[in-house]
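Recap from last week: sequence in, structure out.
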Amino acid sequence: MRTPDDESEDHPVLSSTTLALLQEFYSEQGTQKGKLEDLKAGIDVAEQGNVLTMEAFIEDWNASQFWYEDETAKKLARQMIEGATNECHIAVVSAPSVFIQIKNLLVCVPFIVLRSLEVIVSYSGLLQSQWHADKRPKIYLLEFDQRFDVFGEFIKYDFEQPTRLPAHLKASMTGVVCDPPFLSEDCQTKGKPPPTAALLL
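Predicted structure tokens:
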């Protein structure tokens, strides 16, 4: 027969509810890891007609990672590519959720956003514009998080060294969207405009 002393020597046991939540968490992590592995394997989800999402990239709050909501990211992405041509170069600095939406829009863009593009009718019957590969602007993702190196457009960037940029990017961008991490005055006010954007444009 077990005594209270015996129970105190046992390892703690999680409740069935807690175990179920833990299992769900690990399952979601496995799904996200699988999506990231697909990207690492060179599978261009967007080119296959699927929508890229931020699901494979869990926010790291310790690194001040807070992704934009999809609608906000889409709005910024539309503003960056509206009227762009294949001669345009767009830098997305510390805003990977905007980068993801730009990639999505470059594959299939709503007709109301880019009225000058060739119009096609999708299987759903909705008017859409197809942005052909040779007509797309060049985009670059300047980001610290190495997980995003699964994208060919990734360039390692540290906002604490805002002037350390590849030479070929300097004074070559036609558009820049920048969302440096940490809502500190120092981060937001270094340089007027911020050195990175000033060097890229």
